[in-house]
Amino acid sequence: MMLPGWRRWLFALKISGAALLALGIALWIDLPRPYWAMATVYITMQPLSGATRSKALYRVIGTLIGVTATVVMVPALVNAPEMLTLALALWTAGCLYLSLLDRTPRSYLFMLAGYTAALIGFPAVATPEAIFDIAVSRAEEITLGILCASLVASLVLPEPVGPVLAARVGAWLAEAGRWTGDVLSGVGEAPALRARRLRLAVEAAEIDALSAHLAYDTSAQSRAVPLVQLLRGRMLMLLPVLSSLADRIAALTALSGLTPELRGLLAEVEAWSAQGAPAAGVEALMARIEAADRPLPAHPSWTALVRASLIERLRELVAIGRDCRALQDGIRRGDGSLREPLAYAGEFGGRAPRHRDHGMALRSALGVFLGIVACVTVWIVTAWPDGATAAMMGAVLCCLFAAQDDPVPMILSFALWTGVAVVGVGGLLFGVMPLVHDFISLALVLAPVLILCGLLMSDPKTLPVGLALGINGNALLAIQDRYSAEFGAYVNASLALVGGIGLAAVVTRLVRSVGAEHGARRLVAASRADLARAARRRGRGDRIAFAHLMLDRLGLLVPRLAAAGPDSDLTRIDTLAALRVGMNLVALRRARHGLPPEAVAPLDDVLDAVAAHYDGPRGPASDTVLHRIDAALARIEAAPGGASGHDARRDALLGLVGLRRALFSEAPPPGAALLAREAA
């Protein structure tokens, strides 16, 4: 068993110090429930200071919105408990729905606005005339905890986001460079190697999530936020480009079309990439690629088309690799500037779309709604004095883990460790706390426990344990300005705390739990629906926006595929091939606007057939799609020339080549396939 490293100890000392600071200030200014400020520190504080500040801002705003909603609802509906329950449940569920659709730090605003109303509203039912004072006090206590966490994270040996992000970007590009070397040297992809490549999509999503906190950082890299956004677009485009390159090299090898000239060019690009994609060699390398590119004749052979597609992907690889290196240098320097122009200066701008699952968000909202209603029903039927605590915890736990496919294991783990906290805090509360008479002795008693919670939170594997002990342990201690613990009240409050969590688990199991495989199937279905839409629409399309969306889903899909198990039929899905289909569909939609009318019709037939395929059940594409692709290739090969017409013709042909290889990688070349069909 390895001992915690110094970074983990630093975080534990900082979070415990922030909690004691919040407690001291709350006692000094005589807030009614100082322990709320301590618990808020454990909810808010993160190992990286920028992440703490970004969440803190939205948590404060969300708390104020939740407080305002409570002050409006409780006095107006206190005489109609059924309506008040429905109002608080609907408010919490609606805020959770918005939170799950917004996968940025801003989601904390909606989540806090939701369950803050439950935290304040249910305990205030017994004294509705004091709702304003209670709401103000809760807002002060929560805000105090958030501010103390942010202050300590920012001033005491801060751990900035910038250097961590720069290191993650460097590691990602290094792995992408190894993949580039494997592709260009013709190394085959074993299953383990393919899994590593798919991890790049997951890591790109993690880098994107980390970069969301960069604007709130104090490091030099905080000025490089626009560069990080530009770099992420290129990182995502690198995946389909490398996947396409591997496919074209394999296809040309099978066709005996990988000439010594092409092998030499691939070796040059590989050597340039291995050197870190230096700017000095880009111009000569691009000139070599241009020299190897040949105009397509009137009726090009399949080998010539695949060769032209390979050259196009090489051109994109070098341009993206050059941009990645330039952006990485700018991020590392931290001045937010670039020392050389970008090859794709305008294509990667704008906001990147993200996957939104309205169905699962609604299902989660329904879960928290029914969980609150169930807790309140038990509270009313049993006349339980601490039933408000159960309703409050049910709302909070349903919200905290709503983003998971199956939140029940985490909720049950939270309940288990809350039970452990009940026993431990009981011993502390009734065995040690009566001997404490000033704040210094109180701090000395609490510090070891608070540090232990921080150590547990510093490791992702034990984070839920640390959260359960840090949040609910402080709530169970219920420290006031004077000792007033009573054993019966403590047992009742503990039962309500654990009971509310348990009831949340039961309702979640009945309404919300779906499992990783179900989540994976929903992601696959959403991607297929987008591919059908991309084929059906006739506009030019935005390939970068499409790549962002598809790769965002891929980052969500890969860990779910791993959790689904090797026996699942989902493991046979070639996720990068589906992405290549989408990129080629966008290319075909663009190209059709420059083609003559007689060439547009067969291209539209292809798009319609692809749309029908992705609208239908999952499985291999039918021979109809293959026949229409081959017919469109034959028709567009004979399309008239002209400068713009030539460009559109080439783009359409290469798009069809890419589509055919992505959907029918094992099919014989078009000419051989036509002869086989005629013979049949």
UniProtKB/TrEMBL annotation:
Q: Name one GO molecular function term.
A: transmembrane transporter activity
Chief place of localization: membrane
Q: Where does it reside?
A: Cell membrane
Q: Which organism is it from?
A: Methylobacterium aquaticum
GO CC: one term? plasma membrane
Pfam families with a match to the protein in the record: FUSC
Q: Which UniProt keywords apply?
A: Cell membrane, Membrane, Transmembrane, Transmembrane helix, Transport
Domain of life from the UniProt record: Bacteria
Q: Which InterPro entries match?
A: PHBA_efflux_AaeB/fusaric-R
The protein, known as: Fusaric acid resistance protein
**Where are its TM segments located?**
9-29, 56-77, 83-101, 108-126, 142-158, 361-381, 410-433, 439-458, 489-511
* Topology versus the membrane: Multi-pass membrane protein
